[in-house]
Amino acid sequence: MNKLLSEARRTDRIGSQMEILLLLAISYEILRKDNQAYEVLEQALELAEPEGYIRIFLDEGQPLIRLLQHWLTAKRAASGHDYVSQLIQSYQSEQIDNVNTINIHFTKRELELMHHIIDGLSNDQIARQLFLSPGTVKRYIHDIYQKLEVKNRVQAVSKIKEKHWL
């Protein structure tokens, strides 16, 4: 990695330098070489802070966030404290947003049925409106329940509303 870092510095590739430095910092922390991890992390922060880079830190995920938290604790008087706090806060906000986003992929037809379920229609009413057999509606609803990880219509409606999926 040191050769890559030297080449990135020689060609003035700031983004590559930061990426390599962050990976090195994480590696040093895994090896329990905290001082080296902090030193390399500080180099990355010096490159990133003036330009306000955030995404490159967030993309490294929890291992880097944990390192940033340890750095904050160990380096109370170091410059960059506010910037590191902002990075950690951005990561935490992103995690909350990710929990609230839908990771389940519904077909167009399943989404139609979910709207009708929320509207309180029975299987027979849904079948008539969508020109489907009651058995087909029942199958779609079963698939929806599995994707939602629920057992009945009340739980499905509750989860859909709770997650603001429709």
Q: Secondary structure elements and their pairing?
A:
Elements: H1 2-10, H2 14-30, H3 34-48, H4 55-58, H5 62-74, H6 81-100, H7 108-118, H8 123-130, H9 134-148, H10 153-163
Helix pairs in contact: 1-2, 2-3, 5-6, 7-9, 8-9
Walkthrough of the structure:
This is HTH luxR-type domain-containing protein. GO terms for molecular function: DNA binding. The protein has about 170 residues and is mostly helical. It has helices at about 1-10, 15-30, 35-50, 55-60, 60-75, 80-100, 110-120, 125-130, 135-150, 155-165. The protein folds into 2 domains: about 1-100, no CATH class; about 110-165, Orthogonal Bundle (Arc Repressor Mutant, subunit A). The mean pLDDT is about 90.
Q: Can I get a quick summary?
A:
The protein has 166 residues and is mainly alpha-helical. Helices cover 74% and strands 0% of the residues. GO terms for molecular function: DNA binding.
Features:
166 residues, mainly alpha, Arc Repressor Mutant, subunit A, 10 helices, 74% helix, elongated
- On the 0-100 scale, what is the average pLDDT? 88
N→C terminal distance: 47 Å
* Overall SS class: mainly alpha
Amount of beta strand: under 5%
Please trace the helix and strand order, writing H or E for each element: HHHHHHHHHH
Total beta strands: 0
Shape: elongated
Biggest sheet: strands, sense, closure? Answer: none
* Poorly predicted sequence stretches spanning 5 or more consecutive residues: none
How many DSSP H or I helices? 10
Report the helical percentage.
over 70%
Radius of gyration: 25 Å
Number of domains: 2
Keywords: DNA-binding, Transcription, Transcription regulation
Protein name: HTH luxR-type domain-containing protein
Pfam family, one: TPR_MalT
GO biological process, one term: regulation of DNA-templated transcription
